[in-house]
Amino acid sequence: MGSQSPRPNEIGHPFSEPFARKDIIPRRERRFHGEFSPFARIPPANPSERPEIQLDPPELIWNRRPPLPTGLASVMPPPNLLQPTPEGLWCEAGGFHVDPWKPVATAVVTHAHADHATPGCGRYLASRNTLEVMKVRFDRKLTGEVVDWGTTRELGACRISLHPAGHVLGSAQIRIEHHDETWCVTGDYKCEPDPSCEPFEHVNCDTLLTESTFGLPVYRWEDPRGVLSSMNDWWRFNSEQGRTTVFLAYAFGKAQRILAGLDPTIGPIGIHGALVGPTEVYRSAGVLLPETIRADRTTATELSGGGVIVCPPSATGTPWMRRFKGPGGMRLGYVSGWMQVRGRRRWQSVDRGFALSDHADWNGLLETIRTSGARRIGVTHGSTRVLARYLREVEGLDSFEVPTRFVGEPAPSHAEAVGG
Ligand SMILES: [Zn+2]
User: Fold this and answer.
1) Nearest to 280 by CA among 299, 240, 252
2) Ligand 1 centre from 6 Cα, in Å?
3) CA 44 to ligand 1 centroid distance, Å
4) Which CATH number is 224-354 given?
5) How much distance in Å is there from the Cα of 323 to the middle of ligand 1?
6) Which secondary structure element, helix H or strand E, spans residue 88, and what is its range?
7) Distance 153 CA to ligand 1 centre (A)
8) Residue 349 — pLDDT band, cuts 50, 70, 90?
9) How confident is the model at residue 340 (pLDDT cuts 50, 70, 90)?
10) 333 - beta bridge partners?
11) Looking at the whole model, is its pTM more than 0.85?
12) For residue 79, is the peptide bond before it cis, meaning its omega torsion is within 30 degrees of 0?
């Protein structure tokens, strides 16, 4: 054998290529390879040894056993409890999908954002509030089975339970038990306190499938109370200048979190029609929100100048929005974790960015992974390659990328669809 032995990357493990290769690193991530990168000291590969990188079909990536660091042994041999399929994550032993992106027979849903909840499935299991939001977003007649927090349900040969993910109202992590094996699918999550949804709960498991939307070391959130306070200050200042303030944010989740933090003594608060249904669900669930009025033709005079309007980014520049211009004009603020990166603070025609995210930052992801006690970590939805590589090389964990329909880092335009 000798030199005939296949190199690791010929075996095909997706992590075997050296990290510093520029041709496999998305342009957006390259800037983080300087002072921010935990991998900055990894030498680049010999160019002559660089193979063509070709990501294989998801099931192949998933089932490969990555080469473990010296001294570690695999604790979870295949077959895996969850498998990626064209419809999404499939649990053979339980006979259900988790967050499928196509209609399936049985769907266990983490939360009601568009990239996790799909209409048209035969049977839904989710938290009470997730089902309520799905009703107002998809179909008022939608039915599903409520799984109360911390209670267990039998599905096939599995026992499942839901645990708050702290991302948006109703958002859940799904714990799946089969024989002596436990998996947890986090869905989207954040660890910091948010008065508009159930607080995040750490879940112990053997294998953790974590999101990684902001899985780069540069993302570290400021105290959200400070961000909301500066949003109120900006609104107050604009109001004194006769300028209407507009906060652009995803209609479900981020918008209600903003509403919960706005100071109603500054002026009237208007909401776009897309926010009305989800906001009602928040109020019904007992979340304290200030009084709001629907921003439309009849309330334009009241809101113009001193008021604030919360609406989805897609409303920017529409005749609907122009209607609310005050005597001093109008100022737009974009509210998203993506606004933390300086280059994105001024995004398109937006006057100001506010970095308020409903996802875990770099430290939140690492803390969750460490606290879970899991030895195997699947990374999905976002900066999968960076985080998975970090977990392997720095934390010494067995990690792998989990294929998703949404590949790579979502930009603000995508964040609009999925709630960045
Ligand atoms: Zn989400």
Assistant:
1) 252
2) 41
3) 35
4) 3.40.50.10710
5) 31
6) strand 88-91
7) 24
8) confident
9) confident
10) 247, 352
11) no
12) yes
